[in-house]
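new request in #modeling-help
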Amino acid sequence: MRQAVMYAPGDVRVEQRDKPTLQHPTDAIIKVSAACVCGSDLWPYRGIQKVDEPTPMGHEYVGIVEEVGTEVTTIRPGQFVVGSFMASDNTCEICLDGYQSRCIHVEPVGAGGAQAEYLRVPLADGTLVATPSLPDEDLIPSLLAASDVLGTGWFGAVAAEVGPGKTVVVVGDGAVGLLAVLAAKQLGAERIIAMSRHADRQKLALEYGATDIVTERGDEGVAKIKEMTGGYGAHSVIEAVGTQESMMQAIRCTRPGGHVGYVGVAHEVELPGLELFFAEVHLLGGPAPVRRFLPELIDLILRREIDPGKVFDLELSLDDAAQGYTAMDERRAVKALLRP
Amino acid sequence: MRQAVMYAPGDVRVEQRDKPTLQHPTDAIIKVSAACVCGSDLWPYRGIQKVDEPTPMGHEYVGIVEEVGTEVTTIRPGQFVVGSFMASDNTCEICLDGYQSRCIHVEPVGAGGAQAEYLRVPLADGTLVATPSLPDEDLIPSLLAASDVLGTGWFGAVAAEVGPGKTVVVVGDGAVGLLAVLAAKQLGAERIIAMSRHADRQKLALEYGATDIVTERGDEGVAKIKEMTGGYGAHSVIEAVGTQESMMQAIRCTRPGGHVGYVGVAHEVELPGLELFFAEVHLLGGPAPVRRFLPELIDLILRREIDPGKVFDLELSLDDAAQGYTAMDERRAVKALLRP
């Protein structure tokens, strides 16, 4: 089968590889309908994360179940499924608390690489959610978004305790930040301030429900948020970048007692203890437990109440995966969808 | 009046100073019945925090109201009062959310120094809580504890979302840690594991409701907690020390999705972003909003349901304040009470 493989920073190739096979009785093999390039795939692409050997890429996927192991009971061949980027048993205490991305048996689904024709999904019963019937073709981008980028933005909003009456700030206007705006709107936020300095992304943020755009960042951005919130700061702030600057901006935009949900993978971030102590904000972040939210998100998509698929502004054949990486790296695209 | 003043690390003197006077119409002057030495007073005493000039010490107090400003409406001369170590208006949005220690008009009560015969308390209506009548003499240590060390341990437990069915770990066996054990018990925790290696403190922890004692610390301590919790980690962990080691120990003892409440003043602490991200625990800490809890804590003390005053294992005349600092610095005392 064809599969996207990263050889080195800046070097993504689509090549022939063996089709994956069942390795455990709890596995499923799916035929991938669509996959995509994640902001986190750009870390190794840019050389910030090491690439030690040719590495199959991709961890976001939707597809049709081809084969299941003998112990799989809820997922059947022929079903259309959406899955989280982290495989979980969905039965351990951590999963039952809603933190499936940190399941005691967690495995990264992306180990096999989802930017491919076929994908092995471990712990299929606990990882995949099937749609009631085959979805309309035009809903596939939105369902694909649910497997990571929407689930991640949604978790950011939930972690930031977004809700009615709240003023919400979103730091970061990538696909996750934009979908955090969508999530904040769905969760009933009163005011949603998107911090963005790109016209095209501001436009989508406003479509998704942002009430205000702030173009300043760093100390100026914090001052602006304070000014807009009576000097207090926002109730809920979603951090969707993962740098030192964006984390501190998020923390400083939050009022004492408020909540920061951080979903940008925090590379090279060090939080100063004393400032954090006196900020007195709630912090929660990490890899999104997408599985917790999938049933609700799939339902919202199938009822056409949300349209997260709009974040895909570039659609390519899997064969052209390298173009997707380049376009995202150069910020010519927010997010690239790949069709095997 | 007599007052304890720190001249330099290791140099605390009791000397004559002017009695404080009303400076704002929202002030009260109280005659201090009892004050004490805080673990945080040891930071400058040990030279970790700078002492630039002779500094009046102490921020924990109970006393009798002597005089109030013209705008004070709820507090009257003659009342016995307990107050937070941070003055708050108790009317701003931050206070109404329960974070009075970060009130938009916050002032440290300790600026004037509570280890003295008299103390000026700013924002008296929002800071002080009066008891219904003069309390029995033997309850004064417990009421004094409420003004900081009990309120702080209690906040740690609330921030860690302690509740029925939860396994709770307390890192730190100083007065705050011990009272966090008491708080966890009151809040209905199922299991309370005190991490302590001092026999006298273990004894008090058990009296206050600890169900288990763990003497290991660092990686060994974390491994022990994991072993005791089915590999998952604790639901709620209270950090009551404030060092890099204790913060990391607390975070690593917590299960994904669990809660860390940190109340040790985090000096020279840096939290590694990537580890925090993958730990996926809730974090909340800071100076305790004691004012939020005072009515409930005072009530529990007056009804003799809790006895937080037991943490005072050394009682001295104010004149001997220096001995209190020395005893706590040398760990001969958990906490020293001073009588003016």
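bot summary: Residues 54 and 86 of chain B are 21 Å apart (CA to CA).
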